[in-house]
Amino acid sequence: MSKRRYDPSEDRTPIVEKLYRANQESHYSAGGFCDDDDAFEERRERIAESRQKRADNPYVSQSIPDSCIECNQALFDSWLWDRFSHPVCDSCRDDKNKHKLLARTEVKNTYLLKDCDLDLRKPPLRFYSKKNPHNPRYGDMKLYLKCQVIERVKTVFGSWEKYEEEKKLRDEQKETKADRKFDKKLNNLRQQMKESSRSRVKTDQKHEHVFGEENYNEEKDEYEQTCKECGFVNRYEKM
């Protein structure tokens, strides 16, 4: 029995999903299925590929080095060279340390680099686009090579020591700002507690009635006196 050949133009949507869609009045009630989902995903992928291609175009014609800078062996297969123009072979690649890939947000927050340091300063740092693991509908992640980021940090700040000084200074300023914010909240809380305790003391104090003139109620055959401050009515009979 011959195997069935795969036809890329064939609609491979499950029959259950087709029947489910056909019996729904609109995609709002179609359990999350939407006819535009596939088209949107394809369009997003085309845009991401186009951006990556434009970023890689300046490096297409560059000549490949003869050897790896780590082992001095011939540079045949190198993913780091293809993606980041970094002449290190796949055997010497260290994904957990200096060849680790860093997200753009981490590069900016941890290494204090700005957008202009990554995109405008010559030469611009190469990046590798990857789908966001949290949600594919989000924008693609831009990943940078750690060793190249460190070299850019040295260029921007002058040296690694000066970067560490600036990092320490900003951390101290951030900590001081957080302490001030905490102290302000604590003072506001103390003020609220003082005000609430004062109002509670006022309500807990004993009230001495100041009654007005005595009035006689003929219908009930009793006397009444009303407090001038709180409005309390004291009713009583006389023998």
Automatic annotation (TrEMBL):
Gene Ontology cellular component annotations, sorted alphabetically: nucleotide-excision repair factor 1 complex
Any one Pfam family match given in the protein's UniProt record, by short name: XPA_C
Region (Disordered): 190-215
Domain XPA C-terminal: 98-149
Gene3D superfamilies assigned to the protein according to its UniProt record, in alphabetical order: XPA C-terminal domain
Keyword list, A-Z: DNA damage, DNA repair, DNA-binding, Metal-binding, Nucleus, Zinc, Zinc-finger
GO molecular function: damaged DNA binding; zinc ion binding
Domain of life: Eukaryota
Record keyword DNA repair present: yes
GO BP annotations listed: base-excision repair; nucleotide-excision repair involved in interstrand cross-link repair; nucleotide-excision repair, DNA damage recognition; UV-damage excision repair
Compartments (UniProt record): Nucleus
NCBIfam families hit by this protein: rad14 (TIGR00598)
Protein family per UniProt: Belongs to the XPA family.
PANTHER family: DNA REPAIR PROTEIN COMPLEMENTING XP-A CELLS
Name of the protein in its database record: XPA C-terminal domain-containing protein
